[in-house]
Structure prediction request, 228 residues.
Amino acid sequence: AQSVTQLGSHVSVSEGALVLLRCNYSSSVPPYLFWYVQYPNQGLQLLLKYTSAATLVKGINGFEAEFKKSETSFHLTKPSAHMSDAAEYFCAVSERGLTGGGNKLTFGTGTQLKVEL
Amino acid sequence: EAQVTQNPRYLITVTGKKLTVTCSQNMNHEYMSWYRQDPGLGLRQIYYSMNVEVTDKGDVPEGYKVSRKEKRNFPLILESPSPNQTSLYFCASKKATGELFFGEGSRLTVL
Prediction:
């Protein structure tokens, strides 16, 4: 069974400050890991994904995440927050197996990021 | 343009009145799925389909039906909607590289 825990349902940062959104996963087999972003009234967009190549993954809009097997973590970071980063962020895990990462993505409960001036 | 299209985007209905939310993708993806999003619960999978005529239950299938008669379409059917099915619904298809590609969502209110 697979699961995802996102610590902090709401995170607030100042513009220009470091963004750190936490994600821990549980998986019985080596996982695929994803971060998605949801802007108001929109669907989810893929930010980045880990599929077993480099452990440090770079995504769109300056975000990156590091896969740490020993900590079962996949935290999302951005060095300098921008007002346009305000959105809800979801971490997701998929177990490897069938081509394309198995049958489903299991999502965390989301973290709402607020960026203040 | 590659996209997943859902209709309707917004719907208010009453308890017991059957409704269908359509989903269509133009990327020739074999895998499609439906999720519902509720505050504090994230996204939970309702049903998924590995290919035409192959569907299976996700985590919260009760009260829903799906069909997959052709590759591009995967409608979600609520035979007798109830207020606890008030939610934001997302259809998604899976790319060959493993990640899901989402529609813009359908906000359903059942009175």
Remarks:
- Chain B touches chain A through 27 residues (CB under 8 Å).
